[in-house]
Design brief:
With 325 residues, the protein is of the alpha/beta class. The protein contains twelve helices and nine strands. Helix 4 packs across helix 5. Bound molecules: N-carbamoyl-L-aspartate.
Length: 325
Amino acid sequence: MSTHATAATRPPSLEQAGYLVSIDQVDASSGAAIFALADEMARNLYEPATRQLMADCVVALLFFEPSSRTILSFSAAAARLGAGVISHQAAETSSLAKGESIEDTVRVVGSYADVIVMRHNEEGSAARAAEACPVPLINGGDGGNEHPTQALIDLYTIRNRLGRLDGLRVGMGFDPRHSRAIRSLCRGLARHPGNEVTLVGPRQLWMAEDDVQDLRGRGLTVAQSEDVEALLHQDVAYVNRFQRERIAALPDGDALGRLYRLSAGNVRSSGLQLILDPLPRTHEIDQDVDGLPQAGYFEQVRNGVPIRMALLSMLGRRDTTTTDS
Ligand code: NCD
């Protein structure tokens, strides 16, 4: 039985909850509002007024799993908004190592900061933390479960490049089973009509059947294939590395890595309009793809800052209208 939240247990909307743990909290209209704010942030990145937006705020970054893009782009987003940043980057050097619970950790950090971004290897940890946290919490990835801010960056990049988020054929590989980025993006795409997803990878990395059924229940058309070719007949290819930190054993992993990859040769002869990758890249995209017009993964990286600025400013700014009586 899957431990992942299903369509039936959808959490409250971003606006109601005041935190972001799952892409399920963002429907098409609140997604559009986040994208409009991100557009504004990108346009006004160097305006002095932008650096005042969170000038009285502290952003806490708690990253108990490895990260480069997510932690640094949140850090850059906070800097662009004028906020101070405090951070913890390893479970071993925080009080989690002394046996402190995630709940107590965020209770403590929430008394220092106005908003917390947390990454933790336990599925469901973000939802637990958000409930206990005295300030808004943003999920920067909870194990193999969800990565909602990445999904917003992915949807924003698709919208910017292709002009729409509906009626798309999206191929996703090569580790749909263990990828929080793929799970969150599938759920996000399910919020828009007419999207079809083809999951591609070695059979042992196929998405679990109950997760596929859950996505179908949300209105997404889902197929799975072992054939890399299946990825080439789509509008968008969203590829990732094998998530080895979550795979018990991957016999012939290196040989599979050579098979499951995009090269300039197969991209040129494909119908693909856009190639995305949450990164880091290992085996899944040859370097010679980088110069092709379809390559969108470094643009996707750049979009991380305005999207995260939008989220920090929506959730983390202190409400100046409330006064203690
Ligand atoms: C992804 C993640 O951590 O889930 N990276 C990221 O945040 N951009 C994907 C990955 O690690 O493969």
